[in-house]
Amino acid sequence: MEPTTLTRPDLKERWHAYRRAHPTTRIRNAAADLGVSEADLLAADEGDGVTRLDGGWGALLQELEALGEVMALTRNDACVHEKTGVYRNVKLFESHRMGLVLDEQIDLRLFLERWRFGFAVETPWEGGQDGLRRSLQFFDAHGTAVHKVFLTRRSDVAAYDRLVAKYRYAGSEPLPPVEPRPVPEPETPDAAVDRAALLQDWAELRDTHDFFPMLKTHGVSRPQALRLAEGTFTERVEPASARQALEHAAATETPIMVFVGNPGCIQIHTGPVRRLKATPPWFNVLDPGFQLHLNEEGIASAWVVRKPTRDGTVTALELFDAGGDVIAQFFGKRKPGLPEREDWRAIVAALPRA
Q1: Does the reported pTM lie above 0.70?
Q2: What CATH number is given for 8-86+116-167 in this structure?
Q3: Which CATH superfamily is domain 190-349 in?
Q4: CA–CA separation, 290 vs 72, rounded Å?
C-alpha cells in the first residue's frame, strides 16, 4: 500500500461518500477501492467513533482478560479466522518482541515487532449491548490489519472503556504515514541450493518449530523448500483439498488444528468442525465459537507436508496464494508427546493429488 497523499479531511470526505454509496462493503475492501490503507481510513475518522491508541501493545494485551468474552479475528487476503473466548495466559518475550496467548479458545502467536498502529473503534450494530459494536484493532507499518478484538454481548463494556481511556493516544501529532510495502526479495535459484543438505536437515528434524530456522539456514523460501522436497517430504494436492479435508473432518468428527495468520499474528483453532457452508467464492465453517471464511479462488497451490519429530511424522495441509504466502495450515489435533492421529492421516491420504 502506497502512502496516501490526501489530506485527512479530504480522505474523510471521500470515505464517507464511499460508505453512503456502498453501505455493506467491508472497510478492508473499501480501502483497496480508495487506494489507501485500512489504518488511513480509521485515522480519518479519529474522534468520530475512532480513538487512536498509544503503543505498548504487550501491556494492553495483558489487560484484555478483563473484557471477558470477546471475539478474536486474524486474517490475510484469502482467509478469515474468528474465535470466541477470553484472553487468558498472555505471555510476552520482550527481547524477541513476541507474545503468546495460550487458552483453550484464544490461541495466538504474536509478532509484536510488526504491530505499529492501534485504534478503538465503535460502529453502529444492532447486536451490540447498546447499539454499538466495539473493537480494538491493530495494524502493521503498511496500514494492514494484523489482529482485531471485538466485544460480544457478554463482554464487560466498562472494562473496555477503562482500557481505551488508559491507552488513548495523548499527543497531537497526526498518524504517521503508512510505509510502502517492500518488493519481495527474489528466491535463491534452485540450482544454487544444496538440495541434498536441505533434505538431510529436514530428515533430522525433531520438532516442527525447527522448520522455519532450517529454511533460513538454507536461504530458501517455504514454497521453494516444498518444491525441492517434492516426492520426499511433500506432495502437491489440488486446491480443492482444503474443502475436502474440512468436509471429511466434519463427517468423521476428527478434531483438527487450523492455523491462519499474517506477518503480525497467527491464530489457531483446535477441535472439531461441524457446520460447513459454501457461499462462493468463500467456503465457511460456521460453528459456535469458531468461524472460518476461506476464499477458494485465492488458493494458488496446496501441499501435503511431512515433518519428522520426536513423536513421529507430523502431516500438514498447507495452502498458498499466488505470491507464495501461506493462507492456512491444517493439522490433526495433537500435543507434544503424542503421535499423530490416524484419522487425520486417513483424511490426508484421500486428498486429490495434483
Answers
A1: yes
A2: 3.40.1570.10
A3: HemS/ChuS/ChuX like domains (3.40.1570.10)
A4: 10
